[in-house]
Amino acid sequence: MPNQKPLIRIEISKEYLNFSAGHFTLFSATERENLHGHNFQVQAAVTTTVGADGLAFDYVLLKRVLKTLCDQWDERVLLPQQSPYLRLEQRDGMLLAHFADEQIPFLHRDVLTLPLRNVTIEELAALLLARLREHPDLASRDLRAIELGVSSGLGQWAFSSWEQQTA
Ligand SMILES: Nc1nc2c(c(=O)[nH]1)N=C([C@H](O)[C@H](O)COP(=O)(O)OP(=O)(O)OP(=O)(O)O)CN2
């Protein structure tokens, strides 16, 4: 067995890693929730190696990246760009969301569209994981696995995970 460095899992779950956002879940081409909001909570765990100095990497860096990502979504209504049920249209300085026979207007300052099929905790977790993975501050880290969780309320989480494929 080659001399492999020990792996360690570092978990970050801080109260301030959250974002308050509005959304509505789309259940079909004709059924959706009313617009409402959650205080979404975020947590993450990374699996990495530990150096000869007993340090994996300064996890403050991970907390900073997670906070930056949360802040980007905070205090906005989140809309999916890739839903099969929702069409987004720019008209008269507004963003119109077309759903079934409804036209839902939003001011640009209040809304953020995301490359998602639906604004669900599972889709939000997957997108946050992708953005964490591609963040330049983490690119040089020897990350072997990442798990990212998003919660829409106490006791309900979705976790998206990535693991380095061994050759
Ligand atoms: N698979 C998913 N299903 C649902 C999601 C989701 O993200 N993924 N989201 C919702 C809604 O956002 C809904 O607002 C959540 O409803 P609810 O469970 O009632 O939320 P509460 O925090 O109020 O939970 P309580 O059990 O009522 O305390 C629905 N489905």
Automatic annotation (TrEMBL):
<keyword id="KW-0456">Lyase</keyword>
<keyword id="KW-0862">Zinc</keyword>
<protein>
    <recommendedName>
        <fullName>6-carboxy-5,6,7,8-tetrahydropterin synthase</fullName>
        <ecNumber>4.1.2.50</ecNumber>
    </recommendedName>
</protein>
<dbReference type="GO" id="GO:0070497">
    <property type="term" value="F:6-carboxytetrahydropterin synthase activity"/>
</dbReference>
<comment type="pathway">
    <text>Purine metabolism; 7-cyano-7-deazaguanine biosynthesis.</text>
</comment>
<dbReference type="InterPro" id="IPR038418">
    <property type="entry name" value="6-PTP_synth/QueD_sf"/>
</dbReference>
<comment type="similarity">
    <text>Belongs to the PTPS family. QueD subfamily.</text>
</comment>
<keyword id="KW-0479">Metal-binding</keyword>
<dbReference type="Pfam" id="PF01242">
    <property type="entry name" value="PTPS"/>
</dbReference>
<dbReference type="InterPro" id="IPR007115">
    <property type="entry name" value="6-PTP_synth/QueD"/>
</dbReference>
<dbReference type="GO" id="GO:0046872">
    <property type="term" value="F:metal ion binding"/>
</dbReference>
